[in-house]
Amino acid sequence: MSRITIDGIEIDAPEGWTVLETARFLGLEIPTLCYVEGLSPWGGCRLCTVEIGQGERTKLVTACTYPVEEGLVVRTATKRVVEARKLILELLIAQCPTSKRLQDLAAQMGVQEVRFKPKWENCIYCGLCVRMCEEQMMAKALGFVDRGNKLRISTPFDKSSEECRRCGGCMYICPACTLRCEGAQPEEVLCGRCESSTQPTCLEVHDNYACWMGLTGDCGTCVKEGAEK
Amino acid sequence: MANLRSINDLERLRKEIVKDRDPDRAVISISSATCGQARGSLDIVQAFEEAIGGHEDRISLRVTGCHGFCNAEPNVIIYPGEIFYQHLKPDDASRVVESVLKEEIVDNLVVSENGDRFVHLCEIPFYRSQVRAIMGDNPLIDPTRIDDYIAVGGYRMLGKIFEMEPEEVVEEIKRSGLRGRGGAGFSTGKKWEVTRQQPGPVKYIICNADEGDPGAYMDRSILESNPHSVIEGMILGAYAIGANEGWIYVRNEYPLAVKHIMLALEQAEGLGLLGESILGSGFSFDIKVARGAGAFVCGEETALIYSIEGLRGTPRQRPPFPAQRGLFGRPTNINNVETWANVPEILEKGADWFSGIGTKTSKGTKIFSLVGKIANTGLVEVPMGITLREVIFDVGGGAPGGKSVKAVQTGGPSGGCIPAELFGLPVDYESLTEAGSIMGSGGMIVMDENTCMVDVARYFTHFLQDESCGKCVTCREGTQRMYEILTDIVEGRGSEEDLDLLEQLGETVKDTSLCGLGQTAANPVLSTIEYFRDEYMAHIRDKKCPAGVCKALIQYTIDEEACTGCVLCKKNCPQEAILGEPKKLHTIIQEKCIKCGICHDLCKYDAVIIS
Amino acid sequence: MTEVAVAEASMVVEESIERQGEFLIAVLQDIQEHYNYLPEAALQEVAARLDIPLRDVYGVATFYRSFSLAPKGEHIVTVCLGTACHVRGGARIVEALARELEIEAGETTPDLEFTLETVNCLGCCAIGPIVVVDGEYHGEMTAQGAVNLVRKIQKAERV
Q1: pTM recorded for the entire structure
Q2: Which residue, B431, B400, B437, is CA-closest to B418?
Q3: CB distance from C123 to chain A under 8 Å?
Q4: B227-241 and B188-197 helices, crossing angle to 10°
Q5: Confidence class of residue B336 from pLDDT cuts 50, 70 and 90?
Q6: For B154-355, CATH number?
Q7: Where among C18, C37, C63 does a domain terminate?
Q8: Is C85 annotated as a binding residue?
Q9: pLDDT band at residue A229 using 50, 70 and 90 as cut-offs
Q10: In this predicted structure, what is the pLDDT of residue A195?
Q11: Measured between beta carbons, which residues in chain C are less than 8 angstroms from residue A138?
């Protein structure tokens, strides 16, 4: 057990727990994107950033990967943390504005503007599909390719992989293409309408739901109170 | 060669080697590391071999690594007396040999500055303020011969430490105040101690020779010039830490360094200085070599370990630190080349000697590569705490061609640009960090009035967006976005809001990235904005590049007075954008000009002007 | 892309593993040295023999810049873009060579004669800008000088 303090609450956290696990145990909300229970933490999206330390020597670390250690002091929502998360989300949305998951997070966190030019990419390289494929499906068909600004996720030689069993796990877990908004491209990069009080774009533009899942709104994910079918 | 079974065997071998050397015989030491070879030192070696023919009894030749004074390459040092000749051509060899035989000086090969001549190495301004504790032996050692290293006292410290407890060795290094020479400057002794204290019988040490900072090449030079000093340092460290296996992770872009270190390892093994029960001490230690494959991020410890293990060089969360869980999951201590090379020196001369050099928090000497717009380019080894001004002007001789020095970039892509107003700063870890840069591995790139600081910042973000492993959003996207914004600025599309965004983005990238690469990636941008905001504003508001570098904001024109109509520019213009008849004024058609600058490079009359 | 005989690849890989053991990067370096690139057949073979998932072999082969998945040219022209070379005009040299060879940096001419590469520092900063042609270092280069080096090779080959 390590005695740590999160947002002023003292807790004895078992050895091997991460800051995120401990915070969630206490019911403290820390936004996450590339973290999913059941997959090993990766720490790529940086959204679960929290501030550790006291006095002048504090620093930001990702809650999902940082192990608890005796005497650790964590603050999950300082000004520095919140501002950093907002800018991270700006970077993510500019990369992949069609992701409903990102748009929802932006609405929740009050991101008001995106100052970077939209790239309209289909992937945010969070690696969830890679870990899903490896750790849950035991296939290891997908992997990271290249690096830096050329980083991609693909199968070897970009060919269909012999290891792939077409299980669809990668698509299921993907925050960029699941529930992707298929409505008309919004005027601005920042949409967030599904999560915020206004109607989803698809409702405004189409007579019916243009949900890619063909569920025509039955799943209810994008339906808010008052929205009409 | 004989297998040495005790320290006495080693001392006996040393005596034999020294005895065979005639102290009266002159030695011509030729600087022939990669830089030297690129300037033709191999031809010089051949010329000397021929010239010495018949005088072998009086003169011997030593092909060595780097003498440090790159600008003077190819150069030789003649012993006794340390007579220094620079810019040699193969034709000079016979004259130099003759002068040695007659004990004379060849006047026109001597270094001269502002009319003063400097015959001996110790008088030359470039060398005068240096304290060459690490580099000093280079001219005495042929790096392909272990005999030369043994002759100058090499491997002597093995005998000393095998009589000490490992903890005492750690304590001595701790007391010396040695800090890592590769980047963050963590206390070497403390790092050793933590690794030593880890449970379990298997531990590793690693020599980080993946010198990736562009503009820094001291590690290449040490490996090429004195590889055994690194090996000895590693043996001493391994004994102190309790490791029986070491790795050298060396950049594959350094073919000569790889060759020399492999050869040195083979020779050390051959003598029994590596392997089972070294010198009969019961302590066994082996070193393996892993060649890097071209990734800057592998200078980061966890990425380096992954790379040796055959994985992608993607850093991971620390803790656990490599000292706790490193190579193959075992406790691992990583130091860089220069740090290891300091170890034998410290143990020989003592912690007090070492901590007597430098400042309160930064001890010993540090090697810097002084490059860019500087007269005396080269590797300089100076005591910590010396001011930037002393390094750049006293040792480096300022910018060439009477230009004024504007700034110095230290610490590579993780560092920042320090303006000339702050050249009074002492060179130590804390002062450089406070000024928005870092010590890093010791690159100092000097910039003059013709260097555009916005362009420099853009250069580094371009470098980093490719070298980032791509794991963290902030580093991967952040460096790309910084590059994008800086590109807008240098192409005349920037706005003042862009500058604010750059600063905010820079702070976030610094704050939220996982490893050292990301955490320092914004330094070149933030430091140039802090100190050279006016240059940014010139690009943004006036759409001008004051240094005349940024293509979109400059124009090449031909000066009517200066142009002689020599047609050289016209002939070489790849766009046929230059009009003019022989002996008549030439003109550049702006619509066709792609600003490649070839005309400017070629013009002998300085008639092509950048405006 | 030229197809490499599977039988040959198998032999090259086997020999390399004998020399280098299970160290993936060293094995890949050997293969790169043999073929001057990493053929798909060889990577498949490496994955099978070292029992490493192919996606990891492929991931590593694309991560490190000294590996190439496409055949390189007969002559390799490398321009150093280290900081010291940059402030002395390294980028202009790359542009001039790209123009001359009609390829971008990182590419190979269609006739497989030249590959134009850039490198982030060769550690010869004192004599920059540096251009390396087939392993030979040329210091203090200019854009025109580098183009002349290439033309010299082209001329020599035509004779």
Answers
A1: 0.93
A2: B437
A3: no
A4: 40
A5: very high
A6: 3.40.50.11540
A7: C63
A8: yes
A9: very low
A10: 58
A11: none
